[in-house]
Amino acid sequence: MKRFLLLSVILGLNGCSGIPDNITAITGFELDKYLGKWYEIARLDHSFERDLDNVTAEYSMRDDGGVKVINRGFNRKKGEWKSAEGKAYFVDKPNIGMLKVAFFLFFYGGYNIIALDKENYSYSMVCGPNFSYLWILSREKTMEKELLDSLIDKAKSFGFETDKLIFVQHDKE
Fold this sequence. Notes:
single chain
């Protein structure tokens, strides 16, 4: 019985690496262009980034063919930097922007690129396995209002609660 429960928990947690219904990950994805540093412009609230500003994500290659992920942000309430290192792997083909990412052992969550500047890789919109997780990322600390508004409109059309977005400040290095 214990083995069954453990297996159920593991399968259930790994099932969190999906994508919300009626949303598809972008195709024509090129990982080499996506690697490097990204600034978080906006996000939906969740416990592992609560009270963080100056949030960045840095992606680089791992020796095993996966992607090394380093997330970093400044907790204003505590006055300290917080960082986490994870690993990501493609769920399907490497030209589809659908990955699974783990920051703790083998507990993977979805990392689904649902909008992307495919020419310059200057912005990206990412969601998790459900409508509770959404990030808007940029290569720069700021984003033009028109572009940000269009990404927010797109997210809203998908069903995300965009009125609950947190807009991230970038005033520290």
